[in-house]
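Re: the 72-residue chain
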Amino acid sequence: MSTTSAAMSWLSRFVILLALVSSAALVAVLVMYFQEIHIPTLVMAFGLYGLPVAFILGGLIVVNNIRQRNRD
C-alpha cells in the first residue's frame, strides 16, 4: 500500500466516523426538540454541519480514487 493510499484510507475512516457522529447528533437534536429540552450548542453544530462536511469530503475521496485509478 502506498503512502497516498494509507492517507486516503485514514481519511475515509475519519469521514465515516464524522458521518456517524453527526447522524447521531441529528437524531439527538430531534429527540431533544420534541421533548422540549434545551439543545446544547455542540450537539446542534454537529447535527447541522457534520453531514454536509462528511458528504463533501466523501466526494473528494471518490474523485481522488478515480484519478488514482486513471493513472495506473
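The helical segments are 3-34, 41-71.
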